[in-house]
Amino acid sequence: MSFKSSKRSIELNEQVEAFMQEHIYPREHDWQEFTLDHNNLWKVPDWFDGLREKAKAQGLWNLFLPDEYKPWSPGLTNVEIAPLFETMSKIPWAQAVFNCNAPDRGNMEVLAKYGTPEQQKEWLEPLLAGDIRSAYAMTEPQVASSDATNMELEIRRDGDEYVLNGRKWWTTNAIGDRCKIMLVMGRSNPDAPRHKQHSTILVPRNAPGIKMVRALRVFDSYHSPGGEAEFLFEDVRVPVTNMIKAEGCGFEIAQGRLGPGRFQYAMMFVGLAQRCLELMCDRAEQRVAFGEKLSKKTSVQHEIARSRCDIEQCRLLVMQAAEKMDEGGLEAALPYVSMVKIVAPKMCQDVADRAMQIFGGQGVCQDTMIPEAFTIARFCRIADGPDEVHMSQLGKMTIRDYK
Ligand SMILES: Cc1cc2nc3c(=O)[nH]c(=O)nc-3n(C[C@H](O)[C@H](O)[C@H](O)COP(=O)(O)OP(=O)(O)OC[C@H]3O[C@@H](n4cnc5c(N)ncnc54)[C@H](O)[C@@H]3O)c2cc1C
Q1: Closest-lying ligand 1 atom to the alpha carbon of residue 174
Q2: pTM score > 0.85 for this model?
Q3: CATH topology for 7-101?
Q4: CA-CA to 310 of 20 to 30 Å: which in 18, 181, 267, 303?
């Protein structure tokens, strides 16, 4: 357990930090004002693409894709990637500036890992270039989707095409016109064993038969510009060449997609929580109540101390997961990947909650990123599989290990 950062990772982290200071923090409020204005639904501010171009020109681009995905990967190990994620996640929308945001990140990894050369040319390359965006549609309203084998959307072969019929919801990123491709999971082989019944298939966002039923609000807010939506698929036809890997591999792809993605996700929570901590320290030093700064009050000191402990514990756990992944691949890292999925969002939720309390009224309005950190952390205890599912998986692995 060394977590020794390479010279390259340290330098890149300094560059990401400098970029955040110069280009992202100064636009934090602009972004909030723009995206929360309902006249701007599903649009990005006009300066946003310019920032992406700058990040790309500086080589701060696609840093999420680990070494094993060369030639597309910039060649970093998971241990090298993790600290970069902390830095670029201190503002929730910043990952997109570096082309490192979910769900594009996981989708690009799927295409790099399983895509045919034709699929990679048509969809992976424009995604890596940042020219288009993508969505991942697994969850369905009518079934408990924490169990991926429950999915009912039908994928039926008809000659040289597959025909899709069914309903999806909570599809992130699919609303704005930047989204051009969806990775859709559905049931193609109902008679196969349970974990071999499903497939993942590429569906252009504008394919005839896809109807957006509604945009969903998260804690009463549309996640513009990407959004989350409910979709109806009615006789949607795609060529058979759009199948990813092979029929029956949907469950495997859903699992594989979340490997490195999980610890990058977890490091995002470390970044969000660290920012909340920095903000609350600053606030505690400035705000005076009942004749003394908040920072002089023991209860505030304890909340800050508790937050620092929680963040540092989580950071080390994420680094451990990254190191296990580098040394032994996803199989070796699996218990750690479950651990970080369980620990990180709850840690961030708790830290954001303390920050809100220390900020008082300002802590719940749009003046800081604290409410966003809180709500992201809260819904991520459900999204990508609820806490309980990961607890059960980890519990089973742990019992097996000690048997
Ligand atoms: C903001 C947001 C974005 C999302 N983005 C996407 C996306 O891009 N693509 C996509 O496909 N999906 C997405 N999702 C959906 C998300 O992955 C699902 O909501 C999640 O997998 C849970 O499925 P469900 O909602 O059907 O809950 P259910 O499966 O109905 O579970 C409900 C509750 O039952 C309990 N439970 C379930 N299983 C167990 C168990 N084994 N043990 C004990 N208790 C259990 C848990 O408390 C759980 O919260 C998103 C969700 C949100 C909120």
Answers
A1: 8
A2: yes
A3: Butyryl-Coa Dehydrogenase, subunit A; domain 1 (1.10.540)
A4: 18
